Amino acid sequence: MTVQASIKLVQVSIKCVTPSYKMNNSLEINYIKKCLVLIETRLNWGASDDWTSYDFEKLSEVIQERTGVTLSITTLKRLWGKLKYDNIPATTTLNTLAKFAGYEDWREFKQQVQPGGIEIPPQKSKPRRKWMYGLLGLLPLLLVLYLALLSNRKSATTINKADYTFSSNKTVTEGVPNSVIFSYDATAAGEDSVFITQTWDRRRKVRVPANEKAYSAIYYMPGYFRAKLIVGDQIVKEHDLMISSGGWLALIEQKSDVPLYFKKEEFQKNSGVVVSEALLSAYQIPLQPSPPVLRIYNVQDLGIKNDHFTFETTLKSGYDLGTAACQRVEVLILCKSDVFIIPLSAKGCVGDLSLVAAGVAVQSSKADLSKFGCDLDQWVKVKVEAKDKRVRFFVNGEEAYALTFPNAPTDIVGVQYRFSGTGAVKDTRFMKDKRVIDL
Question: Residue 396 is part of which domain span?
């Protein structure tokens, strides 16, 4: 590890906002904090205090791709202190974090990481050199040096945000894939680094030349994003960016960034949206040993806020063989920088559900979510009523849960469904008072 790399590690550590845990085992807490910092360093998505639900959704996907284990968005939010949680994570969760960070398991991570600092895991093919420990011991000195240099730099350079411009244009009005052309003027940055990034996916954070004027990116899934122009580590300009779905959209997740899209005439029926076994078979998509992740979207500007609305939909899974026995379904009400997640499953699988609503998460391990269990081979009616941040969830006409969410009200921008294998949706609408929006 070079001195420059050590300084970079210190810099990342300074930017990281450490989650607050109320746990008894302080040593274990310390190891968890160090592992989270190391993960942030490897991701290079920026400070975690800026992460939104979209970031944690993407992180869950990346962890699953690299480790083969799925950590829910709720679990990740608890780990990073976005949701209140007073217990030490399960061993499976810790092993997955350690593996994602580059270690064999949690035990090896704790053996390799010194109590006083974070240590980058060694490459398996190369022996660790003793001089690396010496450099790590210099981190406190490098920290002091870095802060001094940063102070001098900040005093010498003042960023005037009015000197910068940043805007974007979509190549198509709606639908995906959709390319976005970002126009910017960052000539005032001088020798500072200039980046363009979108909130939910820090892999899209790219360095752009300060003397250029345009950068292009492709969006493969719809949603609401906030594009940012960053100079050094300071956001100088940002704006909202909506990638609508162009009506109903059905796709299968792939390991690559590009999903498999179905044609509208293949899935859009008079009764609603249907992705059947026959359609999957036509695309040679196997249902075993593990069913594919089916996503159904309808993303658009609805003009309704999440503190006062009614949502209704009817759905069914229809596939319960093999590893899909639990028929897990999630209904997501998408908001600007926020989300509601309504879980459904077979009645025998309600012991592992998580309900999320704009900053609050409810786990079945600590609450009765049994009424979200239902027969998903049949049509299931889901209803959500929100007024003054008080939200009631209904399944087949019966109240399944009620809560009050803490986050500030924000606009609703659509809905997403997640099925394992097949899925069907109909009779979906949003309402506010006498206004009805049928999707």
Answer: 249-438
State the CATH number of the domain containing residue 254.
2.60.120.200
Q: Which two tokens stand for residue 289?
A: 């040993």
pLDDT tens string 372-405: 999 999 999 999 999 999 999 999 999 999 999 9
Do 322 and 382 lie in a common domain?
Answer: yes
Which of 128, 153, 178 terminates a domain? The answer is 153
pLDDT in tens, 263-321: 999 999 887 999 999 999 999 999 988 899 999 999 998 999 999 999 999 999 989 99
